[in-house]
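Usage

Read records sequentially. Each one opens with the input sequence:
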Amino acid sequence: VSSTLNTTVPLTLTTPTSILLTNTALNMGKPLILNADSDSSGGGRIAISNGTTISMGASNLVMGGGSCTSSGCNAPAVGTGVGTATGILADQATISGSGGRLWMWGQGGL
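and closes with the structure output:
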């Protein structure tokens, strides 16, 4: 079982956002999946704003689009439009872990 945020539109974590997965028996090794273009339509970016903290413990963090699993996604998160053309943006955010894997696939748009 994973914690999954699926959306067909942009996914934005604004300050102050904190996601904390501690190393407990309940969530040990269970991934957090941020999927911003789950319908693979070519429009859905991930933006993690200044001041946001994601602390993963020993869990994996997966960011992308399409169909996602704990190992990765089959499509990128896609940025579109002026000022939102970055597929994955982590603007002065803090992402930390202790043994998990970070998997990201983003694609800039026009």
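Summary fields computed downstream for this record:
- The mean pLDDT is 78.
- The CA atoms of residues 57 and 97 lie 5 Å apart.
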